Task: structure prediction
Amino acid sequence: MSWHRKHLLDIESLSAGEIVTVLDTARAFKAVGERAIKKVPALRGKTVVNLFIEPSTRTRISFELAAQRLTADIVNFSADASSFKKGETLKDTARNLEALNADFIIIRHSASGAPHFLSRVVNAHIINAGDGAHEHPTQALLDTFTIREKKGRIEGLNVTILGDILYSRVARSNIWALTKLGANVTLCGPSTLVPKTFEQMGCRVTHKMEEAIENADIINLLRIQHERQRQTMFPSIGEYTTLFGLTKARLARTKPDALIMHPGPINRGVEIDSDIADSGRSLILEQVTNGLAVRMAVLFLVNGGQGPQGVAAG
Amino acid sequence: MPETLVVLPAPAIQRALNRIAHEIAERNETSTEVVLVGIPVGGDVLALRLSAILSEIWRQPVPVGILDVTLYRDDLGGRIAPAVRPTVMPFDVTGKTVVLVDDVLFSGRTTRAAMDAINDFGRPKKIQLAVLVDRGHRELPIKADFVGKNIPTALSEKIRVRLEVPGRADEVVLEK
Result:
């Protein structure tokens, strides 16, 4: 299985084989990060632009380091310091970046579909670093990479995603990736944030925490996204924690080998007990390490892709 | 179907590896300084076999590393990304004599990439090159120290090295 795509826009359009190609490639890149010299010349002379129209620290830094470890040059472009404030459109900004010979544009934007739009108006490789509540493909790839590394497989595992599903691009991308690879996905949280319509994506939906975690092999906790909620979707943070927080008492009733994930930033004492976040059951920091390897793999793979989306280039 | 010719059957491969191992032993008197580094696919299997023979000659284990040079290639642009395989270097190469092992020496570009990659792991005392087949057509000033067999070829021909293919004997085949 090889990779022919010029961009990484979403997980929905990828095949299981393409996802596995990224995960296999990332394994080799993870080893690069463990060497004394953590840099390879694979993207020497290429220019990568981090176009972050929505604030982000960890994803931006992860992509920045990934590009640097591939010997590419990288420029950071953030909304508050840019001409967006002066009224320039996304298309014009991107074309200006292209006029500077950017080979890759990594975009985070509050509007769903912004990366897809860019891929139609510029020639650079586009990588989606999160578009609205739509998708965050590299997060799903690093999550599946981490699960596969720890459990040895994805197929047949019970994965529970807990929290704000409705506004979460991480949840959507994870659901696509996990179901394509054969995992059983359960979604749980307040009924306002986890509507039954998600069953159409092939998931089990429950609003009872105990039911969601009892057979889980992996519990992926999501942050409550205050910035994306138009009104308060649950009565109080305290009530959320009481009903859906991962406490020690609840963890004691899970499978002894169930592992805990979180895309960060974590709210200690809200969705996760502070001690659990620091325990041996938590994969949170390994997710960060693996994110770097996965993003290196994505940059490397799309660099070779020439054809239009979904069409094999040879 | 292309016309194929077996240029090295299994026993000839074994004899070539025996001879290369003895040449490596003859050239490198301080056996403790020698490590073998195979380039996949092909060179990694050959490095393991050479290590087994050399370990008999020297009566001590000879360490083997696997070095994937994909990320150091000079032809990555404008082509579908090739598969990247894990690199395993279970030793420090600094001060060592690294014998690079590859199945076929052709343009020399893989060897150049391998030398760049090795330098990212440390500064070896020496780097030597062992190949099972030298088919000519060098594009860089690179020469093998140890050669199993020189096989003059046309550019249009292909050399296939089949090692440890289930249900088949090892062989090197020339496809016209």
In short: Chain A touches chain B at residues 2-4, 24-25, 27-29, 31-32, 35-37, 39-42, 70, 297, 300-301, 303-306, 313-314 (CB under 8 Å). Strands of chain A lie at 47-52, 73-78, 104-109, 125-131, 158-162, 184-188, 204-206, 218-221, 259-261.
